TrEMBL record:
Pfam families: Glyoxalase. The lineage of its organism: Bacteria, Bacillati, Actinomycetota, Actinomycetes, Streptosporangiales. It comes from Streptosporangium jomthongense. Residues 7-131 form the VOC domain. This is VOC family protein. InterPro entries: Glyas_Bleomycin-R_OHBP_Dase, Glyas_Fos-R_dOase_dom, Glyoxalase_1_CS, MMCE/EMCE_epimerase, VOC_core.
Amino acid sequence: MSTPALRTGHVGLNVTDLTRSVAFYRQVFGFEVLDERSDGERRFAFLGREGTLMVTLWQQSGGVFPVDRPGLHHLSFQVPDIEAVRRAEATLRELGVRPVHDGVVPHGEGASSGGVFFTDPDGIRLEIYAPSGADTAPAPTQGAPTCGFF
């Protein structure tokens, strides 16, 4: 028996402040709010594009994302080209978000793909990348993929 073709549906993230996170994800990724409950004890938002659900936010946590524990390593979004990555980087800088590396970087030494690596307001590691055009900068991590060690 073969496994049917799979693709990622949506990604659910726990956040500490739904209003802040919805604003962040809308500004950085251009998401629209598909559904939301922003009052009461069970607060959540469904975010997507063109009616397709991509990220769900659940206000049910405290503290900061623990990078030293098993679980999500980072969430990555592909854009069509390096110019879209640079626009995202500019938006991040306007919001006061500092990239983990110095701007747009390749996925590894000699790789053309790459992007910008950063964290959301709760410390969740994120990436926006393009399949080519990032080979104008050196890879910040030698001997391993850039996206694996940040």
